[in-house]
Design brief:
With 171 residues, the chain is of the alpha+beta class. Helices cover 23% and strands 25% of the residues. The termini are far apart.
Length: 171
C-alpha cells in the first residue's frame, strides 16, 4: 500500500473552493440587495410603499406660491392661478390641480384627494408640483403670456407642508 500524502494539495484545493463559494454567495447577496433596493425605489415612486401605512399627513400637499418681483407688475385681475400636481415622468396630464381665481400674492394653497382629476386616484408616490398663472383661465398647455414656477425640490412626495413655489418664467 501507498502511504497517504500530507494532504497539502487537497487542503489547498478545498480552501480555494471554499473561497470561490463565499465569493459566489457574496456576489449573489449583493445582486439580491440591489434588486430589493430597486424594487423599493419603484414602489416608493408609484406610491405602493404607502399602502397600509397610517396616514401621516400624506395625501396632501400644501405651501405658498409667490411671484418673482420682476413679474409682479404683469399680474392682471383676470389671471387664474393653477397649482398642478403630476408625475415627473410620463404623460403631462395632472394628477390633481387647484384653481385660484384672481390671486393676491403670496397665495397659500393645499391640494388634497378632493382635487384629483380622476375619482378614486390618490396623491401617492413621487410628484412634481407646478404653479401656473394663466391668462385665459383655461387649464391645459401653457400659452404665450402665461407664467410658471416649479417647486425647486421636485420630484417630491405628498405630505409636504412647505412646498414654496416662485413664479419666475414667462411663456
Amino acid at each position: 500500500m501507498r502511504p497517504l500524502d500530507d494532504g497539502q494539495p487537497r487542503r489547498a484545493h478545498r480552501e480555494s473552493t471554499k473561497e470561490s463559494i463565499v465569493a459566489g454567495y457574496t456576489g449573489r447577496s449583493l445582486a439580491m440587495a440591489g434588486g430589493i433596493i430597486g424594487i423599493a425605489a419603484v414602489a416608493a415612486y408609484f406610491g405602493v410603499a404607502h399602502i397600509g401605512e397610517p396616514d401621516q399627513g400624506g395625501g396632501s400637499i400644501a405651501g405658498q406660491v409667490q411671484i418673482a418681483p420682476n413679474l409682479a407688475d404683469q399680474v392682471k385681475p383676470t389671471d387664474v392661478l393653477f397649482v398642478i400636481v403630476r408625475r415627473p415622468t410620463g404623460p403631462p396630464r395632472p394628477i390633481a390641480a387647484k384653481r385660484i381665481d384672481a390671486p393676491k400674492f403670496p397665495v397659500q394653497f393645499e391640494i388634497t384627494s378632493a382635487d384629483v382629476m380622476v375619482q378614486g386616484t390618490e396623491l401617492k408616490g413621487m410628484v412634481d408640483v407646478i404653479a401656473r398663472l394663466d391668462r385665459d383661465g383655461q387649464a391645459g398647455q401653457a400659452q404665450p403670456g402665461d407664467m410658471e414656477g416649479r417647486y425647486p425640490k421636485n420630484p417630491t412626495l405628498p405630505g409636504g407642508k412647505d412646498v414654496n413655489i416662485t413664479i419666475d418664467k414667462v411663456y
